């Protein structure tokens, strides 16, 4: 294997939700030819399963699924994540397009469409969203992995080594991102407040020490003898595990 192949960044992951198999197959084939990784599913349950276990960079969602409300699926995704969405709609469904854009979707493609048009819109959305998505995410990182754990920065889901999902508050998420962005480095309490970007009453009222204790309860087999988040007396805290960023 060449050095170039070894250092090539992972392909961006597009999730396609459409209950028409030929459309799914055509999109997957064309985007795959243009160096995207594509997962296709036919319903909301399968969509949720993919989002729960994998990093997804963009969602292509048909708003007119036969058995489900695509708008409700879009709302569910947008309520819980920052994943960009391109809607698939029929030419006669202008109210759906307007509602979807007002809801927070990034763009739409009307059926019938060419895969080439969809590719152009996907690339445009990703270019447009890159500065926004990178905000609060060091160097545009999509996820972090450490010793069997994975923190998805799009969905803000923390997946444990046994496959279960650990619910994170906004405070816990920001604090964990701050630690994972600087492993093996001592971070003072002020630095943790700054890097977690959570300057809110909730953070000030409750001390950083309390938030660290709560995060330990989520991560540590024995919070009284922490393995990951260690205290440096008089200095702050250090995340003591190898961390792998996923771009």
Describe this structure as you would to a colleague.
There is one protein chain. With 247 residues, the protein is an alpha/beta fold. The chain folds into 2 domains: 133 residues, Response regulator (Rossmann fold), CATH 3.40.50.2300; 107 residues, Orthogonal Bundle (Arc Repressor Mutant, subunit A), CATH 1.10.10. It is built from 10 helices and 13 strands. The strands form 3 sheets. It has a 5-stranded parallel sheet, sandwiched between helices. A 5-stranded antiparallel sheet has the order 9-8-7-6-13, with no helix packed on it. Strand 4, helix 5 and strand 5 form a beta-alpha-beta unit. Helix 4 runs parallel beside helix 5 and helix 7 packs across helix 10. The longest helix has 20 residues. The radius of gyration is 20 Å and the shape is elongated. The protein starts with a helix and ends with a strand.
Mind sketching the topology for me?
Layout: H1 3-7, E1 13-17, H2 21-33, E2 37-41, H3 44-53, E3 58-62, H4 70-80, E4 85-90, H5 94-103, E5 107-111, H6 115-134, E6 143-146, E7 149-152, E8 157-159, E9 165-166, H7 170-180, E10 186-187, H8 189-196, H9 201-205, H10 208-219, E11 229-232, E12 236-239, E13 244-246
Parallel strand pairs: 1-2, 1-3, 3-4, 4-5
Antiparallel strand pairs: 6-7, 6-13, 7-8, 8-9, 10-12, 11-12
Helix pairs in contact: 2-6, 4-5, 7-8, 7-10
Key descriptive features of the protein:
single chain, 247 residues, alpha/beta, Rossmann fold, 2 domains, five-stranded antiparallel beta sheet, 13 strands, disordered N terminus
């Amino acid at each position: 294997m060449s050095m170039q192949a070894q250092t090539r960044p992972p392909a961006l992951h597009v999730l396609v939700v459409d209950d028409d198999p030929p459309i799914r197959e055509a999109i997957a084939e064309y985007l795959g030819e243009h160096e995207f990784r594509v997962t296709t599913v036919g319903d909301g349950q399968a969509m949720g399963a993919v989002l729960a276990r994998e990093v997804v960079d963009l969602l292509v969602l048909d708003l007119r699924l036969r058995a489900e409300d695509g708008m409700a699926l879009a709302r569910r995704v947008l309520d819980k994540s920052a994943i960009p969405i391109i809607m698939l709609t029929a030419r006669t469904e202008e109210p759906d397009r307007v509602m979807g854009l007002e809801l927070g979707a990034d763009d739409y493609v009307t059926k019938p469409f060419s895969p080439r048009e969809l590719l152009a819109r996907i690339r445009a959305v990703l270019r447009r969203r890159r500065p926004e998505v990178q905000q609060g995410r060091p160097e545009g990182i999509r996820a972090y992995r450490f010793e069997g754990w994975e923190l998805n920065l799009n969905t803000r889901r923390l997946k444990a080594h046994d496959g279960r999902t650990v619910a994170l508050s906004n405070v816990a998420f920001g604090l964990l991102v701050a630690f994972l962005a600087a492993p093996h480095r001592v971070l003072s309490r002020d630095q943790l407040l700054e890097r977690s970007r959570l300057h809110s009453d909730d953070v000030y009222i409750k001390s950083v020490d309390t938030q660290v204790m709560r995060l330990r309860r989520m991560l540590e087999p024995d919070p009284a003898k922490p393995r990951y988040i260690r205290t440096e007396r008089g200095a702050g805290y250090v995340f003591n595990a190898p961390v792998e960023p996923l771009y």
